[in-house]
Every structure is written in structure tokens, then in C-alpha cells.
Amino acid sequence: MTRVLVTPRSMTQHDLDDLEELAPLRERGFELISGPPGRLPSEDELTDLVRGVDGWIAGVETITATVLDNADRLRVISRNGVGADAIDERAAKARGVQILLARGSNARGVAELTLGLLLTAVRDIPAAVTAMRAARWERTLGTEVADHTVGIVGYGSIGRIVADLVTAIGGRVLAHDAYATVPAELAVPDLSALFRCSTVVTLHTPPPADGTPLVTAELIAAMRPGSVLINTARAGLIDEAAALQALESGRLRSYAVDAFASEPPELTPLLTHPHTIMTPHLGGYTDASVRRATVGAVDGLLSVLS
């Protein structure tokens, strides 16, 4: 019997037999094996779960070479998302394990959260909520989206939707992508120019392959005083010390983040700063995004196992 491991938290919080999106696997007689209910599995748990498994629908959990060493039958890892940086790709390739991604499945969810974080930051909504709950009547003069130039780093499926949403409510958009084609009217030739010309910068790109931050102290220093930086992509994109210094100096009005090195994250000085806005990896966590991602992951799995 073909055995499939299922570990995304959005799926393991339910009985796998109740998930309609997994019906194509059940109909083919595949045995479905659930990870720990509603949480990320540990390396030790994955090491045990992966034995005797042919396919794996994976989430954001870290899949190490140690885990893959115990994957005696594994042929494919099909992620219900768009990134593979949590998987030791070299180890997977060495063992003949294919890695498939559900590209574009969460694009609208992440883009809409980005817009929400932008609005939250420019109106300083968290401070207003905190003051009201403490029975204080305190108001901060906000700005409107039409007052801002939004620089988009990464013009893939998410970046394009962000551009459409911001433009629709009156903001000016600039974009830079080292790989994808950006429309001429939006294109900025390099990151330095984009950071200099933008009052809001939002990140929708993978981190550099060498592990160094893409957003350096120099780039942050080029931003105008009172700017906003939004990161719904990867924690490693940001020089955290530089971002913290920019918040303390007022160079950054807000840092909004939905991406963390570990989940839940260690609460560093950057994350606990009063002008940091944190959300617990909500970008692709919508009904529609989860359904699309699950369908994409199942289709990818079947393309190999069938």
C-alpha cells in the first residue's frame, strides 16, 4: 500500500478523513499518516514518521538530512506552499527525492495581509488599540496610502497582487526583481534606488543563497525618515540589528513582520520594540489559500506517485 505522510498544521488539526481536498488520495487507496495534531513536528518525530512512507505532504517544518536518512521509501515531498528553504534540498536530491511546490497558492492571502499591515502601520493602529484598552484617549496623526510610494521587492505572484491592491487605493508603486520582468512604468533598476525612492518597502522575494541579509544597514539608512518596512517573506531577509537601530532613531516608523526563523519566534529586541507589528505567520492562512495549497500539494504528489 502507498503511504502518505501529512504534516502541515492547517491539515493535522483536523481528522484527515474529513478533509475533502485529500479525497483523491483516499480514493486511490493511499494510507494517510498524520503528524502531531495542529503543531509543528520535531526532528525526532519526523524521523519516526517518515519510515515506510512513499510520499509526504509537508508544511513549514524543517526537513533535515537526518530525517531524510530515515526515509527508506520516500519518493516525493510535495509542499503546501511556495518555498523549499526548510528542506535540505541537497540531501533530498542525493536520495532521489523530488521536491514539489504549490506555487502561487497563497499569493492573494499574503498580498492582502501585506495591505493590512501597510494600513496598520501608517495609521499606527496598534498604539491606538493599546491606549483605548488602558482608558487613554491618545491619537497619532496618520497618513493615507495616497501619500506613499510603495516599493515592492520581488514581482512574482504575490508582488503583482500587492501592486494592484496598492494602486487601487491610490498609492504609487515601484518594483524591483532580479529575475522576473517588471513593467517599465514600475521598474527600478536596483535596490538602492528603490529604498531611496520609497516610503514603504515590502518584501516578496527569497533570501540570498549565501544566507546574508538582503536588506542591509546601508539600504535601511537610504530610506526616508518615518518609513515603513514590511516583511511577509523570510526572516533572514533583514539585518535585524540595523532594523532595530532604524526604529530607535525614527528612520523606520514601523517594522511589520509575518515571517520568523522559528515558530513561535524568540522575542528579540526587534520583535518586542513598540513600533514592531507582529502577526503569527498569517499570510497564507486563509480558507481559500489553504484549500488552494492543499489541492496543489495533492496534485503534485499524484503526479509522481500515480
Question: What's this, in brief?
Answer:
With 306 residues, the protein is of the alpha/beta class. It has helices at 9-12, 23-27, 43-49, 65-69, 89-94, 107-122, 125-133, 157-168, 191-197, 217-221, 240-249, 269-272, 287-305, and strands at 3-6, 31-34, 55-58, 76-79, 98-100, 149-153, 172-176, 200-203, 227-231, 252-257, 276-278. It has a 6-stranded parallel beta sheet, with helices on both faces. Strands 2-1-3-4-5 form a 5-stranded parallel beta sheet.
The general outline is elongated
Work out the number of β strands: 11
Classified by CATH, the class of the largest domain is: Alpha Beta
Helix coverage percent: 25-40%
CATH topology of the largest domain, by name, is Rossmann fold
What's the CATH H-level superfamily name of the largest domain? NAD(P)-binding Rossmann-like Domain
Could you spell the SSE succession in H and E letters? EHHEHEHEHEHHEHEHEHEHEHEH
Distance between the termini: 13 Å
The overall pLDDT, averaged over residues, is: 96
Percentage of residues in strands: 15-25%
Q: Which ranges are low-confidence, i.e. pLDDT below 50, for 5 or more consecutive residues?
A: none
GO molecular function, one term: oxidoreductase activity, acting on the CH-OH group of donors, NAD or NADP as acceptor
Protein name: D-3-phosphoglycerate dehydrogenase
GO biological process, one term: amino acid biosynthetic process
InterPro entries: D-2-hydroxyacid_DH (IPR050857), D-isomer_2_OHA_DH_cat_dom (IPR006139), D-isomer_DH_CS1 (IPR029752), D-isomer_DH_NAD-bd (IPR006140), NAD(P)-bd_dom_sf (IPR036291)
